[in-house]
């Protein structure tokens, strides 16, 4: 593993309120007895375990961001309507998005995920990385009916 320099904790970190620890008075926490965490983090726990099975070795800050991004409220809805990550170039932001987008496809049942970038070339490269991950694992390929690679019509 690469030597990390600097802090893995951001200077500013704001996450929406949710139960990160089990709350005996919360019915949603009680509905998920298999999880040690509270009702607000069970989807992110699943996502991080799932991602590691498919070759994603995430740094602590990436795991923290995905945990905050995929936290849920006791009613089961996403706790965060928007997620922001500010980091220097070449530090793993796109890897965060790959994991989140693949989680949306395979774990969360999201039917529409749109990825955009300031240049088409960057969005196309991101699509290729996600496609390569899917085509590298039979368990992922079996669950997708098709992958379209036509220029400007890329879709999974």
Choose one word for the global shape: globular
- Strand elements, count: 0
Order of helices and strands: HHHHHH
Helical fraction equals 25-40%
Secondary-structure map with pairings?
Layout: H1 27-30, H2 42-53, H3 60-69, H4 93-106, H5 120-136, H6 138-141
Helix pairs in contact: 2-3, 3-4
How would you characterize this protein structure?
- The protein has 156 residues and is mainly α.
- Helices cover 39% and strands 0% of the residues.
- The protein is built from six helices and no strands.
- α2 (42-53) packs across α3 (60-69) and α3 crosses α4.
- The longest helix is centred in the C-terminal third of the chain and has 17 residues, at 120-136.
- The chain starts with 26 loop residues before the first helix and ends in a 15-residue tail after the last helix.
- The mean pLDDT is 79.
């Amino acid at each position: 593993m690469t030597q990390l320099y600097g802090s893995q904790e951001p200077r500013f970190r704001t996450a929406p309120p949710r139960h990160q620890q089990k709350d005996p008075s919360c019915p949603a926490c009680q509905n998920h007895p298999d999880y040690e965490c509270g009702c607000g983090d069970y989807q992110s726990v699943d996502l991080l375990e799932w991602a590691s099975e498919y070759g994603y070795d995430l740094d602590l800050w990436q795991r923290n961001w995905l945990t905050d991004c995929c936290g849920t409220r006791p009613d089961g809805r996403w706790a965060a309507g928007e997620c922001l990550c500010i980091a220097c170039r070449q530090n793993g932001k796109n890897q965060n998005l790959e994991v989140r987008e693949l989680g949306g496809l395979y774990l969360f049942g999201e039917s529409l995920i749109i990825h955009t970038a300031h240049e088409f070339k960057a969005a196309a490269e991101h699509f290729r990385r996600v496609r390569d991950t899917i085509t590298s694992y039979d368990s992922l390929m079996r669950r997708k009916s098709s992958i379209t690679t036509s220029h400007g019509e890329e879709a999974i």
